[in-house]
Design goal:
Number of domains: 1
Mean pLDDT: 76
Largest sheet: 4 strands, mixed
Radius of gyration: 14 Å
Strand order of the largest sheet: 1-2-4-3
Structural class: alpha+beta
Shape: globular
Number of strands: 4
Helix content: 10-25%
Order of helices and strands: HEEEE
Strand content: 25-35%
Distance between the termini: 16 Å
Length: 105
Amino acid sequence: MVKITSIIIVLCTLIISCKANNVENMDTIKEKTFIQVNDNKIGMFIEGNNLNAPVLLFLHGGPGMPQYGLTQKYPTFLEENFIVCWYEQRGAGLSYDKTIDYEQM
């Protein structure tokens, strides 16, 4: 529950800051960001073409490779209707850390 709450706070902060900047064509968001969950740095990509769209938290299956990297070649077009947060779980993608004790995962 702490992870999801942290993610929602990050998303809301990014969306509010984009709207507050009042810059032309700031209806879109494309961010790479990190949050701290306990002692772990968790990475995520946030993309959307409409800041008023609902947020979709995409949790990839695991353990293993997150799907965000595949969306560059095989687009999902989810960002057309949502603000998509591509959450990369601990040990995968942006959240990979070679010093992780795998017995603790």
